[in-house]
Structures are given as structure tokens and as C-alpha cells.
Amino acid sequence: MEYKHFSHQHPLTLYKLQPGQQFQCHGCHLPCHNSIFACWVCSFFLHDHCGNANRYVKHPSHTMHPLVLMPSPTYCSGSFLCNACGAPGSTFSYCCPLCEVDLHLHCAYLPPKVSHKSHNHEIYISFRPRDQKDSPEYCNICRKELSCRHWSYYCAESGCDFRVHTYCATSEVKPGLYQDDQPDDSGTSTSSTNQNNCVYEPQASAATPEEVLAEMFQLQMQLQMAQQLNQIFNSTRM
Ligand SMILES: [Zn+2]
Ligand SMILES: [Zn+2]
Ligand SMILES: [Zn+2]
Ligand SMILES: [Zn+2]
Ligand SMILES: [Zn+2]
Ligand SMILES: [Zn+2]
Asked: Each residue of 195-230: pLDDT tens digit?
């Protein structure tokens, strides 16, 4: 069975890794395990969850706009800084070009709650930036500084002051957590058919991410022009 992925020109085949085989996923640069999508001509590999990731998601960390899956960063630097973990990335990202929100694919699909052996309660993900405190906060697992701008996992029990880095809490990826933000005209439920959703050729009627991006950039331009006009207007009145 051959699959088409929007980020690669050749068809991909699903392949089960043999023990000892080591490949790196092109979508997230992390090592592959279990099943992968492969182009053997180019040595191009994708985790099954990276290959199946929805092109658009409604993400609870950014509810104003859909996040678009981009195969590579749109910035001239060729890299982005992940709003979830703060680390740079140069491959797949979920982004909102209007707000300059960029997430690693694996950060976008972090589980909402996890258990960690260092704490006896379940801990929950928090997307919200926290107020800058006078003294820096430290991660209860690695003891390094915890930036108030990035996501964290925390314990909600009263009396527990437990907060950690997302990447210290878990390396789990939960693909299919969030709904595809595209109108579903095939009549199938996106939550249960996620496994097959995105690797197949997109439906002809669906807007491509490029079209969505173009539309968003246009909106951004209009916004900027309106702001500039406003400035000119205000300065001439002075
Ligand atoms: Zn991957
Ligand atoms: Zn190829
Ligand atoms: Zn990240
Ligand atoms: Zn946005
Ligand atoms: Zn940590
Ligand atoms: Zn606790």
C-alpha cells in the first residue's frame, strides 16, 4: 500500500522497524520506533503519528485560530522557537502565522495529564503563561529554571507546589487528541478515523494549507495597513 504525504514528492510505504534498526523521523528529528512511513529512494522517514498528523487542528492553547501543520518553518532563519517547550525546531510545526505561534508536532500532542514517578498525584498540562515572579521558579524534576512563558505540568492538589517542564514530565505523544479543523464532508467522524485521515490525498474541494496561509497573510497585511493608516491619521492631527 502506498501513501502520499504532502511534504514529500514520492509515495511512502508503511514499514515495521526490525529490532536494531535506527531511523530518524524527518518530521520531528526524534528516533523512530514501531511503524514508520518510508521513502527508501530518499531515506525519508516519518513516525506514523507524524505522517498521520492532521493538517489543521483546533488547539486548546490557541483557540482564536486553527493551527496549520507546516513541513518546514516559514521564517527566513529556517527555524522556529516552540511556544510550548522553548526549544528551537526546524522541521514540522503547527503554526498560526497571524500570531507567530509555533509548536513542535510532539509538543502539540502532549497528553493532557500524566503520572510521573517523582510525584504521587497525576499532573496536568498548563498552556497559560504565568506571572513573572520575583525569584525564578524551578522544575521539580530537573531543578533547572522553569520559564513562565512556556507550558508546564502541575499538580492541582491543594498544598502541592509541584510544577515541571513538559519534556521532564513525559515523552508521550498522543496523536489525534484534537479535532481536525476542516469541515468534514466525507461524513466520517474525525476522532475515530484519525489513523487514516491525512496520509491520503487531500480531497479536491479542501483548501490547501498554502491557500489558508495566503489568506492569513492577506489578513495580516490588511491589519498592518489599517494600523499604519491609523498612525498617519493620528500624526497629521497632532
Ligand atoms: Zn516524528
Ligand atoms: Zn523520496
Ligand atoms: Zn516544543
Ligand atoms: Zn493565531
Ligand atoms: Zn525540568
Ligand atoms: Zn500533588
From this structure: 433 343 333 345 566 666 666 666 666 666 666 666
Counting ligands in written order, which one lies closest to the CA of residue 169? Answer: 5
From residue 216, alpha-carbon distances to 24, 25, 60, 100, 200 in Å are: 32, 29, 20, 12, 25
CB atoms within 10 A of CB 238: 4
Q: What is the pLDDT of residues 98-156, one digit of tens each?
A: 999 999 999 999 999 999 999 999 999 999 888 887 888 999 999 999 999 999 999 99
Q: Name, in order, each residue with C-beta under 8 angstroms of 31's C-beta and a sequence gap of 6 or more.
A: 22, 23, 24, 25
Name the percent of the chain lying above pLDDT 70. 76
> Given 51, 66, 82, which residue is the final one in a domain?
51
∠ Cα 121 123 127 (to 5°): 165
210, part of any domain:
no
Cell numbers standing for residue 115: 503520572
Write down the pTM of the prediction. Answer: 0.76
Q: Would you say residue 2 has pLDDT above 50?
A: yes
All residues with CB under 5 Å from ion ligand 6: 121, 155, 157, 160
Residue 222 cell numbers, joined: 490588511
Number of domains in the chain: 3
The Å distance, Cα 163 to ligand 5 centre, comes to 9
* 118 within some domain: yes
Residue 202 lies in a domain: no
Domain range for 121: 113-169
CA 193 to centroid of ligand 6, rounded, Å: 36
